[in-house]
């Protein structure tokens, strides 16, 4: 047995042994309500950042570990706290930047949760709780992998390691670009691992090679100066709900495909993926048909989509015989790889203004755009990552696209154009990230931690 093989085996053994402690620490993080959205307690996000800092301090390998913030350029407000750790490379070895985020989505309707969202609960081989998968598990995969490397080879390894654990990813990463600019030297790396994506399934690892962009905004539709009696004026006066429904209906063809001129799609092959798998993973009942055209994965990975994610209008409980003067909706568009997100938004706004019925007044606010991303898979780090994933999971990894968005990757590319970026993750298709009953598949987490530890070991022996 060569010394390299022996060292790799030692790292694998240490990673397997590190899993129980990593899961226990993950449970502690899940208990913290680190929601970075407006209206929630900032103190909880600060408490989460402090807990992550403590975990990194305990590793004893970093030159510095800090909780830091940056100012949001558009508003001048202070961004949410992130944790930044850095360790200089030695003897010509590369530096790796490990990214994850410690903030989480709001829980939504808590009555839909089968167990308390901030009380980690294990059942059926899964750990349930908000952030258990997205993305506190990503944080603990990084920490656990580093613990294994230290345990196996000692704290004096040569690999440079930077960690950036963000605190506002779910809320839009408003201060991300400013944070990167202010901390570029501490974050600069040859390889960047973004642990915030998913896998093909619970047993098959994946490298994410494409991500859709996003354009999210609020649209107000106004048709009246004030509410009016629906009996006295209905039939002659357009209410805002009528105008909104008619306007929104122009956004899709009859089969649910996006029908907006100027919004593009990407032409790329996709793996086989059945409608039965879609129904199982998405929770689509047998009587409801899928939407769109083309292969199922092309609809998710390579085509745009439009979703109305929120609406402000009179509730059912408060309904009265009244013509509504205005209605507001939140629209979320996923932008196909290859199209600039702002260009896609401009096309959508142009469409909405052109199709506004009855002369309805439209106002657009809270516009948030993030570009899509295509990974360059030609680098040495990609090859090392594929080897580590196959060794950690026991099966070869699959290159996948993801219908979701990680807009800040475009900022990483802009700030560090020479870095090789790897998008990985701990989620499987049943993780239900952002939804009630979010969960982490425990075996998937174990494989992910082992794989990352093996990647760190291989990079420590590399001069890429």
Kindly describe this structure.
With 464 residues, the chain is an alpha+beta fold. Helices cover 34% and strands 23% of the residues. It folds into 2 domains: 3-211 and 373-460, Zn peptidases (Aminopeptidase); 213-266 and 303-370, Alpha-Beta Plaits (2-Layer Sandwich), CATH 3.30.70.360. The chain has 13 helices and 18 strands. It has a 6-stranded mixed beta sheet. Strands 11-13-9-14 form a 4-stranded antiparallel beta sheet. Strands 4-5-18 form a 3-stranded antiparallel beta sheet. The radius of gyration is 24 Å and the shape is elongated.
Q: Detail the poorly predicted runs.
A: none
Rounded to the nearest angstrom, the distance between the terminal CA atoms is 25 Å
Q: In the CATH hierarchy, what is the superfamily of the largest domain?
A: Zn peptidases
Q: Strand order within the widest sheet?
A: 1-2-6-3-7-17
Integer tally of domains: 2
Q: Main beta sheet, described?
A: 6 strands, mixed
**CATH topology call of the largest domain:** Aminopeptidase
Q: Any guess at the CATH architecture of the largest domain? A: 3-Layer(aba) Sandwich
If helices are DSSP runs of H or I spanning 4 or more residues, what is the number of helices? 13
CATH C-level label of the largest domain: Alpha Beta
Radius of gyration: 24 Å
Report the helical percentage. Answer: 25-40%
Features of the shown structure:
single chain, 464 residues, alpha+beta, Aminopeptidase, Alpha-Beta Plaits, 2 domains, six-stranded mixed sheet, four-stranded antiparallel sheet, elongated
């Amino acid at each position: 047995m060569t010394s390299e093989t022996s060292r790799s085996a030692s790292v694998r053994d240490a990673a397997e042994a590190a899993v129980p402690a990593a899961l226990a620490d993950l449970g502690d993080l899940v208990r913290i309500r680190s929601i970075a959205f407006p209206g929630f307690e900032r103190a909880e996000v600060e408490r989460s950042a402090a807990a992550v800092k403590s975990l990194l301090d305990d590793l004893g390998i970093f030159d510095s570990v800090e909780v830091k913030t940056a100012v949001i350029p558009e508003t001048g407000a202070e961004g949410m706290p992130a944790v930044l750790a850095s360790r200089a490379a030695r003897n010509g070895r590369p530096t790796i930047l490990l990214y994850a985020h410690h903030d989480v989505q709001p829980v939504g309707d808590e009555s839909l949760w089968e167990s308390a969202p901030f009380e980690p609960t294990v059942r059926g081989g899964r750990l349930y709780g908000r952030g258990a998968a997205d993305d506190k598990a990503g944080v603990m995969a990084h920490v656990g992998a580093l613990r294994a490397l230290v345990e196996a080879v000692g704290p004096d390894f040569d690999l440079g390691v930077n960690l950036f654990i963000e605190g506002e990813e779910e809320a839009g990463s408003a201060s991300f670009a400013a944070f990167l600019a202010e901390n570029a030297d501490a974050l600069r790396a040859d390889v960047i691992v973004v642990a915030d994506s998913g896998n093909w399934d619970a047993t098959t690892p994946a490298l994410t090679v494409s991500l859709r962009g996003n354009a999210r905004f609020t649209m107000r539709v106004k048709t009246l100066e004030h509410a009016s009696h629906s009996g006295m004026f209905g039939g002659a006066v357009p209410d805002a709900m009528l105008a909104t429904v008619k306007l929104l209906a122009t956004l899709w063809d009859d089969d649910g495909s996006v029908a907006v001129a100027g919004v593009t799609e990407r032409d790329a092959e996709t793996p086989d993926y059945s409608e039965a798998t879609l129904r199982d993973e998405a929770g689509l009942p047998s009587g409801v048909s899928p939407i769109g055209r083309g292969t199922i994965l092309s609809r998710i990975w390579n085509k745009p989509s439009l979703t109305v994610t929120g609406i402000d209008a009179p509730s059912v409980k408060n309904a009265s015989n009244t013509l509504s003067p205005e209605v507001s909706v939140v629209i979320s568009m996923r932008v196909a790889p290859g199209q600039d997100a702002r260009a896609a938004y401009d096309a959508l706004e142009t469409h909405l203004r052109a199709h506004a019925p009855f002369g309805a007044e439209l106002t657009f606010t809270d516009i948030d755009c993030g570009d899509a991303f295509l990974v360059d898979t030609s680098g040495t780090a990609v090859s090392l990552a594929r080897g580590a994933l196959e060794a950690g999971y026991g099966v070869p990894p699959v290159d996948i696209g993801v219908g979701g968005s990680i807009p800040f990757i475009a900022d990483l590319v802009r700030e560090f154009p020479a870095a090789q970026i790897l998008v990985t993750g701990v989620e499987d298709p049943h993780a239900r990230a952002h939804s009630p009953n979010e969960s982490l598949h425990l075996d998937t987490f174990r494989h992910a931690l082992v794989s990352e530890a093996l990647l760190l070991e291989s990079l420590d022996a590399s001069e890429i």
